[in-house]
Amino acid sequence: MYAKTNLMQSCLILFALGWTTQLQAQPRFNELPGYDRFSKVESFPSRIAPGGKIVDLKWSHDFKKFNFTASSSGTRKTFDLKAGKIIDLQEITPFKAAPIADSNRRRSTRVPRATQRPIEISNSEKWTAVYDNFNVKLKPADPNLAEIQVTTNGQDRLRYGTGCWVYGEELDQDSAMWWSPADQHLAFYEIDERHMRDYHLTINNTRLYTDLQTVRYPKAGDPNPFAAILIYDLTTRSTVKADIPGEKSQYLYNVRWTPDGNELLVNRTNRHQNELDVFAVDPNSGKSRIVVSERQKNFQNNSPKMMFLKDGKTFIWETEKNGWKNFELRNLNGKLVNPLTSASGYPADRIYKLDETAGWFYYTAYSAENPYNLQLHRCRLNGTQNRRLTANGLHHVSFTLSPDHNWLIGTCEDINSPPRTILYDRTGKEISVLDQAHVAQSIKHPLNAEIFSFLAADGKTKIYGTLHKPTNFDPKLKYPLLVDVYGGPHSKGLSNRFRPVNAYCEFGFCIAKFGNRGTVDRGKEFEDATYLKLGAIDLQDQVDGVKHLSKRAYIDGDRVGIYGHSYGGYLSALAVLKFPEVFHVAVSGAPVTTWKNYDTIYTERYMRTPLENPDGYRIGSCMQYAKNLKGKLLMVHGLIDDNVHPSNTWQLVEALHAADRRFDMQIYPKFKHGIGSTYMKIRWEYLCRHLQLAPGS
User: Fold this and answer.
1) CA 583 to CA 1: how far, in whole Å?
2) Within a domain: residue 676?
3) Domain limits for position 288
4) What span, in angstroms and rounded, lies between the C-alpha atoms of 200 and 202?
5) Alpha-carbon span 113 to 165, nearest angstrom
6) Looking at residue 358, what is its pLDDT?
7) Each residue's pLDDT tens digit, 601-627
8) Which of 331, 348, 369, 540 is deepest in the core (most CB within 10 A)?
9) What pLDDT does residue 357 have?
């Protein structure tokens, strides 16, 4: 009776959720056709091309030699820079190693995503700032000293010394208290949420009685938390508020002290996030002044890189004024000293290293020849003599400069080229290959991967993609195509790393990934293409990528699937709903189904508010196209997802029911936004079930 009752309940639940798959035995993951090949190929990456990288690098005291271990052989080697070659192992002699620079930086404790550390230890370790019962207090290391209660009026909706979910998630604020270098001052957040609505998540959903988790999660267009920066003076035992002008709903973040501790730096951006100012705040008076400003028509990068020189007054600043990421030299007086780089057509990437003694600035930048190949550049601190140091056309994954900055070691690769490590001189001339990975002779199959390009719908923008094929690929056959998608703003579109096989292809798929417009590292125009149009331009690039590949004889355009998680889950669901003639199966993990459901900082940066952009929100909503569903859709969601709330999926379920459309669903009661390996297996079982067989077979 018990077993029968539970079977009936299960059937009712599946029916209620829209599960239309017949209740019959379905092959599990390890029973799928192709699993044997999958299990073998899954371990290939470590065996296909071992080596190519060097480890345990040590330079001689005079910088004329260096020792390293070649990962291809595991052997220790010495390179003689004067001789220009690797010395035979028998000739290696010990040398005095150059000292390793000590950054003397104290490591911070990691905290869960979207939260802030509850304690911050002062630089002298004499005091610990503690977030306790909504307030800030200071605990002394000396037991003879008394605790200091910095704030006293904190409450659930008015908190000191902590941030909030949206600041942690979208502005990367993992701290909310900041000690000055000399420990005289402590800066900390005041977060006012008294005007905000509550959002409730049910938790402990598998227990007899559930609980509610209440958070203030501002959804697009709703009131924001009001943030302020307070500064406590340990000497005078007084507190001042940073006087930073602007709207109450603006964002204050990336709080840090100047190297000398005389001023507190705070990033401020308006709610539209197209205006960024860095303020310097006097910790004694709270008065502020603007150090640098950035303005963009659409949206501004919220956290440009800022690196101080030794004088503590001059700094390198990251800017996109000309539409491409570049670097310039500025000072705390608010003046531009001089531009450092002036790239146009390809963006700079990151500050790599600064050699003030010799007057060189090193930075990484993407290649004009291939926007997914990273190279190392350098220029003078006056902006002259700018040149690329890495000569070949591969993607560089790591760089190491010698302590005297005369030699460069770089490891490079691409999707089909195994890693190799190259020694360059200071002009970028290739001196020697230090280690080279080779495709193992034991691998008896071709490495079926490629990077390709096609034109976007605008007829001018080149979109890149990668394609992986099964190891037993036969060009005479037709294969279903799978699209692996994320594609969201501020994410990388593609990676040109060495990955010649994809084990999931062994189930009989060709798997593609497209670097759609809206992703980063291809200039501001490319990134801005999706502004006010999330789910339109980015999805169109996926459609055009499928159409491009479907022209190949071995791609079956009638068997196309798409899968992704979070933003990728959104595009996956939208794809099968909006373009049913192109996408026939979708697995959608934790999707945002309408941008009205997501937080203010992320959503409004790219979409503005629903009131300002009603058409954009309507066009980007999955519910708008629920009636179009013709193929197979599996939705997957964690029931305690505090990032993309389960209500996203519930709304799409309701719309699909209203449209009398059938779909499938998997719910994970104990999971948040990330779902474990079980979901991965179910994803591939579902895709195989609906795409492996050709129509009519």
Assistant:
1) 44
2) yes
3) 113-303
4) 7
5) 9
6) 93
7) 999 999 999 999 999 999 999 999 999
8) 348
9) 93
Strand partners, 632: 585
The residues pairing with 407 across neighbouring beta strands, listed in sequence order, are: 425
Is 447 within the bounds of a domain?
A: yes
Domain assignment present for 399? no
Of 137, 170, 378, 372, nearest to 254 (Cα)? 170
pLDDT of 27: 79
**Tokens at 307, concatenated:** 């690196």
Residue ending a domain, among 286, 303, 320, is: 303
Query: For residues 213 and 263, is the Cβ–Cβ distance under 8 A?
Result: no
Q: Which CATH number is 556's domain given?
A: 3.40.50.1820
Tokens of 461: 């923008």
Tell me the residue length of the chain. 697
Please report the DSSP string for 234-284 in residue order: TTTTEEEE----S-TT-EEEEEEE-TTSSSEEEEEE-TTS-EEEEEEE-TT
Say which CATH number the domain at 133 has: 2.140.10.30
Q: Which residues have CB under 8 Å from 346's CB, separation 6+?
A: 324, 365, 366, 367, 368, 371, 523
Mean pLDDT of 544-555: 98
- Residue 43's pLDDT band, with cuts at 50, 70 and 90, is confident
> What confidence tens digit (pLDDT) does each residue in 433-486 have?
999 988 775 566 667 899 999 999 999 999 999 999 999 999 999 999 999 999
pLDDT of residue 692: 83
Whether 356 and 282 have beta carbons less than 8 Å apart is answered as: no
How many domains does one find in the chain?
2
Residue 554 structure tokens: 């071995």
Of the candidates 534, 557, 551, 537, the one whose C-alpha atom is nearest the C-alpha of residue 482 is 557
| DSSP-based helix, strand, coil % in the chain, nearest 5 | 20, 35, 50
Domain boundary among 303, 318, 351: 303
pLDDT at 187 over 60: yes
Token reading at 166: 């949206």
Distant-in-sequence, close-in-space partners of 565: CB < 8 Å, separation ≥ 6:
486, 589, 590, 675
The model scores a pTM over 0.90: yes
CB 231 within 8 A of CB 186: yes
